[in-house]
Amino acid sequence: MARPGKQASNEGRQLDRQTASATFPSAAAAVADARRFVRKVLADWGMDEAADDAVLATSELATNAVAYAGTSFEVSCRLEGGDIEIEVRDRHPTRGIEMPGVTASSGRGLPSIARLAASWGVSYDRRTKGVWFRLPRPGADEGGAEPGASDDAAAEAEPAPGIARAERAARGFGLDTVAEAGLETGVPGAQPRDDRLGGERLDGDGMGETPAAGDRLLRSPAAVEAMEDAVAAVREVLGADGAAVLLTERDGRLIMGASGGTAAEMPLGGLTVGGLAPAVRAGSPWVAPDAADPAAAALRAGSLAAAPLESQGRLTGLLVAVSSAPGRFEEADGARLGRLADEISLSLEKARVGELERSWRGWLSFVAEASDLLAGTLDQERTMALVAQLVVPRLATWCAVYTVTETEPARLAYVWHADETRADGLRDLLDQASTAPPMDAPGPWNGLAGAPEDVRTAAGDTADDQVYAFPLIARGRRIGSIVIGRPAGDRFQRSAIELAEELSRRAALAVDNARLFSAQTAMSSALQRSLLPPGIPEIPGLEVAVVYEPAGEGSEVGGDFYDVFESGVRPGAPQSPSRWRFAIGDVCGTGPEAAAVTGLARHALRILAAEDMSVPGVLARLNRLILGEGERGRLLTLLHGEIAARRRRDGVTIRLTSAGHPPPLVLDPEGGVREAATPQPLLGVFDGVEFHTDTLELRRGEVLLCVTDGVTERRSGNRLLGDGHGLERLLAGCTGLSAGAVAARIQRAVRDFGPEPSNDDVALIVLRAS
């Protein structure tokens, strides 16, 4: 529950003191709940503009708390001095924060927080550990200019807020888009590449860097609007027949950004930055009096005036005015055009950084959402399928997941292609690849080249795809690799490679968790089967039905058990069995410790019964055995009884003892229900307890129902199934049913009683005299 702080009457005090917090369980679903909580709090405070950053950072920290601390966690939101401070505090102060690439080889850590937040840190106390981060209040001056300073002065003092945020993003991601924007990132992966203009490097003082890619500007509505306004302004100021904004591409080509007048219908042909006038190298405007200028020729103009659009030493594009008449423009026109180009350059740079930030946020949101999806399943096959389908088609055309174990080499576990018709050919190609994907470090993989020629032919163009491989490393162990591919002519952007690498780190932990869970489930299931009886004997004159449902997903052994078995023959009678025993019990807790007591109880019951020990004697001996286990012992409730056939086969006689167990119920043919045993102390608490038996004559048509508290304490909100004699009323409605039908009705009623799955084991035995 959120706990809003009191609001002071003074608005400034209100910002200083306003707080809200909520506590969440250690579960994958809690991460999404934490995100919704933070978004709602910021919306209530009127700070929706900061919500995206805050939600993404909270998602990282909440997942860290679930994955590494393994405890419940508290999310606190505070407004302090106008800043938004959010803290995620877990209950495991001694377990340190994992930092991939610094202190851990896998998993997720805090790099995203450094990219998003203005500041962050870790605080400890004796019982908890908290990671906090601060974001500036929306609308606050991030440039740090003093009050009253001019906008120009502030702009010169610090980069624009969007650029500052993009720079922080670049320090962590090193995206291609950051390099395109010309930001100084300080990250090796984000430095400009050497493939400058198809091998030709521009020299000169002003334009020594790779041109920025203009296609990003065409995706920005703000940039398109700015370019259209610039075209209209050029035609009005210079009286030109036409005007255009030409944008540079990474390979040096010029593409049309916006145009008007006679320039609207003009193709650019093969115009490149390298073919422009020398003035562009110095970042200066120029005037071309005739069509001898390459730009004028490409635009089919008689004369031309042009000025470069620059951003931090990079050529963004050209602002061009054209005329059909030679000698139309003078040097003064070029100077005016240069001033217009300076103005539009600022607008385009702002739009470029906005698009960069939008793209970066989109990818970061993708990674956060992908982490939630991966954390939401513990099925190994489903996890691998989810990884592949997250990659395709966002990052690659196809994806394959390999797994490896300590005893087996790399095995192709899953293949996914954007074109389903190519999936089979791709699988054959990967199966026949000459080498296994690298398991140590990410990088290009050329294994497809070694596949047999007939397999390559069947795979078609896929055989020539570009391929990258990323190792799956979890908890210091190599568990497989992810391989992604794109067509040969569709190069991988650096951003896609880095995001695939980030996704592979998170996928490795998810796959390993699913693998460990599968192994634990299989082990628990085997142990659970060993604790249940191999079969139910046939008892003359008695119908027997049993139900057992462990709680949860099978990852832990339950504490409930039951048994029905032969115990001996009556003295002087033939060697066919004439006595049987049954038991139903509930060990306090679950897991290995509870399983040890369950195994002890079930096997002791059979051994002691074979020694012809009475029911009270068996319970007394079992009580001493549990007490003898010391701290390893667990409390045990047990209902144990002996069944003896009646001479006239008119039902059976049952002598039973209820040691702290829910009382058994008897249903008569007329629909009456009564309890059949008196309560006695449970086992594992007191030494020297003496037990006694209650005798029950179960006549033809009568039903004895024995259950564990997973039935009576089945919860729906604040109600329990056993409240107000609920189980008695349920049993009364089973008049005339067989033992199997009674068991099925009780089982269905337990399942349907509450909307949530039961969190306790359910066991029941139904005996009906026939």
TrEMBL record:
The answer to keyword Hydrolase applying to this record is yes
PPM-type phosphatase domain mapped to chain residues: 542-769
Q: Which UniProt keywords apply?
A: Hydrolase
Any one Pfam family here would be: SpoIIE
Q: Where is the GAF domain?
A: 222-358, 392-521
Composition bias, Low complexity = 147-159
> Mind telling me which InterPro entries this protein's record contains?
Bact_Sigma-Reg, GAF, GAF-like_dom_sf, HATPase_C_sf, HATPase_dom, PPM-type-like_dom_sf, PPM-type_phosphatase-like_dom
From which residue to which does any coiled coil extend? none
Instruction: List the residue ranges of the region (Disordered).
Output: 1-22, 135-159, 182-212
Q: Does Iron show up as a keyword for this record?
A: no
Q: Where is the composition biased (Basic and acidic residues)?
A: 192-204
Kindly give the SMART domains that the UniProt entry links to this protein: GAF, PP2C_SIG
Protein name listed in UniProt: SpoIIE family protein phosphatase
